[in-house]
Amino acid sequence: MFFDGSLNINEASTGILFVPPNKDKLCYLLRILFPTSNNIAEYEACLHGIRLAVELRVKCIYVHGDSALVINQLNKEWDTTHEKMDLYCKEIHKWEANFYGIEYIHVVRDKNQAADALSKIGSSRAQIPQGIFIQDIDKPSIGNDLVDKSNNEALLVQNVTPTTNSDDWRAPFIKYLLDGSGFQDKTENEHLIRRSRNYILVDSRLMRKNANSEVFEVYHPR
């Protein structure tokens, strides 16, 4: 199995390619419909690929990816310093019991071109060729309820609020983009989700997209 994630300013998607011995290749495209990062997209690709392998009754599998972070964390060679990364690792390791053998292998991008091309089809909104299975995912596979909210709130305080002003209008947007949480009021929450489409997070900083797909940082007025 080869997997890859693709992230641009507007879209995120993943490509998964199965190369069975003496059989036709199977191509899967996952379109990610929630705010995410490149690392999360890579983990989603790997996790969904392994789940698909279980559904296909595969018992021995080599998992190839060009993300050194994902492969080394799954091989327990690198520590998972972020709560979400740790949750993805634990979830993937749970599925390993379905295989007689599984091995995670890091490959350079040139050796992962097919999965990379699949992922870019989804993130570029290009026409989907025939023979590719497509699935949309609208929330993280590990579930928002599994994420340690206290870690996200600490990150929010550290990176979002440049002054002691507690009325920072950016806070709800950053919190929503971090962990998907919003307002209890349905109308306010729908308004937040709709407006959040104009923003992305870069190193925990809120960036706004303009009509030309350019991004610039937004600040809280002092």
Mean pLDDT: 77
Count every helix, treating DSSP H or I runs of 4 or more residues as helices. 7
According to DSSP, the number of beta strands is 9
Helix content: 25-40%
Give the termini separation.
51 Å
Give a description of the structure.
The protein is of the alpha/beta class. It has seven helices and nine strands, in the order E-E-E-H-E-H-H-E-H-E-H-H-H-E-E-E. It has helices spanning 38-55, 68-74, 83-95, 113-123, 149-160, 171-179, 186-196; strands at residues 2-7, 12-18, 26-32, 60-65, 101-106, 132-137, 199-202, 205-209, 215-217. The chain has a six-stranded mixed β-sheet with strand order 5-4-1-2-3-6. Strand 7 and strand 8 form a beta hairpin.
Question: What's the quick description here?
Answer:
This protein has 7 helices and 9 strands, in the order βββαβααβαβαααβββ.
Break the fold down into its secondary structure elements and pairings.
Elements: E1 2-7, E2 12-18, E3 26-32, H1 38-55, E4 60-65, H2 68-74, H3 83-95, E5 101-106, H4 113-123, E6 132-137, H5 149-160, H6 171-179, H7 186-196, E7 199-202, E8 205-209, E9 215-217
Parallel strand pairs: 1-4, 3-6, 4-5
Antiparallel strand pairs: 1-2, 2-3, 7-8, 8-9
Helix pairs in contact: 1-3, 5-6, 6-7
